[in-house]
Amino acid sequence: MIPSLKVKSKNQKMKLFSLNRRQRTLFTILFFAIFLITVVLVGALLDRDRIATDLIARNLAPSLDHPFGTDWLGRDMFTRTIMGLSLSIGVGLIGAVGSTLIALMLGMAAATMGKVADRVISWLIDLFLSVPHLVTLILIAFTLGGGFKGIVMGLMLTHWPSLARVIRAEVMQIRSAEYVQISQQMGKSRWWIAIHHILPHLTPQVLIGFMLLFPHVILHEAAVTFIGLGLSPHEPAIGIILSESMKYLSAGMWWLAFFPGLCLLIIVQAFDRIGENLRLLIDPTKSND
Hints:
Layout lengths: L1 H44 L31 H36 L2 H15 L3 H11 L3 H12 L2 H15 L2 H8 L4 H37 L11 H8 L9 H28 L7
């Protein structure tokens, strides 16, 4: 009797721990989501007069009035950094959404449109994966003349291959399921099967893929902007801030690069944590580990 009670007690504790683990995962996702939304909102609401030229307050070290210091034109670096993060998140969002949609369409087309389409799309995936993202992104951005349009189109057209390969494999597996075979025998079209059977099963993979794609998109946007092929120099983008600060590091103005770079890494880690916790939450084999 006593051993059975111990087993029940142990099982109850394991269930309680599992519930707490799930709650912690949800709390982590909510915390980082609120943090990112706050950054975007603060960046949109900050007074742009704080980044106006003020030669009297130039080259000031971090203080209570200027937490991130000021630059060589007297502009408040905290305001510039938050605005730059907000802008980078917006550009990254557009690029990641576009890239995810391309991956979804091509992945489904490769698995449902026949062998010829599968071969062509698989060849495209292998072609893009054989070249580093950053190189292809620079070529596309340079061809389109840089700026907002060039960087966004480059981000969309370079980050879809890995996710498209995952979606293709998932669709191949779903397509062989018994209920899909029954729908085909009943005369349902490919589009009907794709919308009613395949898309609902792909939603978790697409969502997680989008969240894990986002950090790479933001980092690559900052890298291309850093070398002058991304956003306009007049925009307070993180890549532009880091690029401009390189000329002043030797003069001891370390805060010009340290705080923007650190904030960019924090934003990237926040998106990465959301993606990882979403994967734990959605995956039934890992949610209770």
